[in-house]
Amino acid sequence: MTAHDLTLEGHGIRLTPAHPDDAAEAWALTDAAMWAGMTTPWPASAEAFAAHVERQRETPGMLAFTVRDAKTSGIRGSTTFYDYVPAQRRVEIGTTWYGRAFQGGRTNPAAKLLLLEHAFDVWGLNRVALRCHSRNDRSARAIQRLGAVPEGRLRRHRVNGDGSVGDTLYFSILREEWPAVRAGLEERLRD
């Protein structure tokens, strides 16, 4: 799976297929500190960010999205489906980042609700996994606030963008947990 045409919209945001043309606006929302803990090095220029997006588009089993404001189309960040294995009815959600102005608000729960609805209700998957670097407490808390269940720590599982080796925390949402997770996300997004 490479470039895709899937667009998801709701709760004030729109997820559009990631494209290198978005790089200048998206890259301006990033910095090296917020990128820490990613498995890829921080793209230190708009051109490097465009190349990063192109690599995402070329990665089998990955659907990369630009997260936009539904009214203005302004970019808020990025997220992906990856390790999509239809025959096993599973996918992971990750490689997610948001500009600092959009962290801790409605953007992440809205994006995750759209992705989870698609995974469970359209694709009919049994499992959606999420993961983060073991030192990324903010992401781990955000994943658990979504309703994902901690599964454990994979030791020395990831090579970070800076070349260091770290542990990964894994979480999941199963099909039978989805109704409660959906209800929790919808409650968080009520105006």
From TrEMBL:
Species the sequence originates in: Microbacterium trichothecenolyticum
Protein name: RimJ/RimL family protein N-acetyltransferase
Annotated ranges, domain N-acetyltransferase: 14-148
